[in-house]
Structure formats: C-alpha cells, structure tokens
Specification:
With 227 residues, this protein is of the alpha+beta class. It has six helices and 14 strands. The model has no long low-confidence stretch (mean pLDDT 88).
Length: 227
C-alpha cells in the first residue's frame, strides 16, 4: 500500500499513522481471518513494515522520487521484511507508487527464484475507483469454498459456494484494470481454487453485433460482482 498525505499529528506505527481514504477502506474491509501480508511504500522512507513507528512527514511521491527509488531498489527495499515466496500481489496506490512497487516485486521474484512471474493486480482510475478495487480485493480474501459438488478431469474439486457467490447465480463480469472493456453478464457454473486464487467457471454473455453468444471462461472472483 502507498502511504497517505493525511496522517496523525504524532509518531505511531505506520498502519495507524496513515489516515487517508485508502487506509479507511483497508480497516473497513480487511478480514480478521485472512489478513494479507502488508508492506507500505512511504515517499519518505521507502518500503516499511506496517508496525514500524514513524513520525509525520510531508514528502510526496513524484516521478523524480520514484525514479530515485527504482534506480536504487536495494536501499528502497531495506526497511521491509520481504517474504521467502511470492504469491499473488495487490498494488494499492497511485501511478508513481505502483511503478516502484512493481519493480520491487519483480526484483523479489528474481531473488527468491520464483519459477514464473508473480500474479500482480493493481488499482487504477480515480481515488473512488481505487477504494472500490481495494475493498473488493480484501473482501475476496475472506471467501471460503464450501459444498463440494464435483471434480474436474484432473481431480481438482469444485464447489457450490465461495463467499457471496453461488453456482447458478447471474453476476456481472468486469475487469477492474481494463475499464475499456464493457461489463458483461455471466452465470457461474463452478467455483474452485485456481492457480491465481479463487476462480469461477462461468458462461459469459459475449456481444457480437446484434447477437450475443455464450462463452465458457475461467474468471478470478475479483473480476465478478453481485447484481
């Protein structure tokens, strides 16, 4: 997560010091039973742990500041405890923050010898859209698969329910990071644990001129929305 301009007026752990709207969203949506590992990117301090106690400051993440951090990632990354393995990553912040974050994640993947590039999701658009994207991502972490109803040919089980989603339900399929693609209706056929997280096998209503046809797709739950 990126730091925020709104802060407490006294030193505090970073996760408490920042009082901006993205941190309000984080506190409102983070599930108690599935909290993600959070690393904060501070325009002043570089990457830091959420429990690192720091004082208020006025630094901003500009294009020049981002360039300095990217050119010296070792220094920028030194203040955080990084994981030994890299799973799916969600980047929450503005354009310049995300540039530094992507560079750090790619460097970390090389350091730990990840066999493939990590799955990276990120916010986009205005602050309202970014809040919605962060909230939906955090809500998805609390989803649990239940009611096993079958297996794919490779033996992978699939389920009737995952959090707010249910097989047979008609939902909206929209890519948050690709706003140019119009939302489409989809009907969930199965829910399962895919290689990049919770996934739905769904029949998507694709438009073709004055006609529409149904295409079966695997869709990350983060790209599905209840009506």
């Amino acid at each position: 997560m990126a730091c925020s301009a709104t802060k407490l007026d006294h030193p505090a752990p970073a996760i408490d010091l920042y009082r901006g709207v993205m941190y309000e969203t984080f506190r409102a949506h983070v599930p108690a039973d599935a909290q993600p590992q959070v690393i904060i990117l501070s325009a002043q301090h570089g990457f830091i742990q959420p429990d690192a106690e720091i004082a208020p400051y006025d630094a901003r993440m500009t294009a020049d500041r981002a360039e300095i951090m990217v050119s010296d990632l070792s220094t920028a990354m030194a203040g955080a405890v990084w994981p030994d393995q890299v799973g799916p990553v969600f980047l929450a912040g503005g354009m310049h923050y995300r540039r530094v974050m992507r560079a750090a994640v790619e460097r970390l993947a090389r350091q730990v010898g990840a066999g493939s590039a990590p799955t990276i999701m990120e916010t986009s658009g205005g602050i309202g859209m970014q809040r919605s994207q962060l909230g939906q991502y955090l809500d998805g972490l609390g989803n649990e698969l239940s009611e096993e109803i079958g297996h794919f040919p490779n033996g992978l089980p699939y389920f009737r329910r995952a959090g707010p989603f249910t097989v047979g339900e008609r939902v909206i399929h929209a890519y948050r990071h690709l706003p140019g693609i119009a939302p489409r209706w989809a009907t969930i056929r199965a829910l399962f644990q895919g290689p990049s997280g919770l996934t739905a096998e769904a029949d998507v209503e694709e438009g073709m001129g004055n006609r529409a046809h149904i295409a079966s797709r695997w869709i990350a739950l983060t790209n599905l929305h209840n009506q």
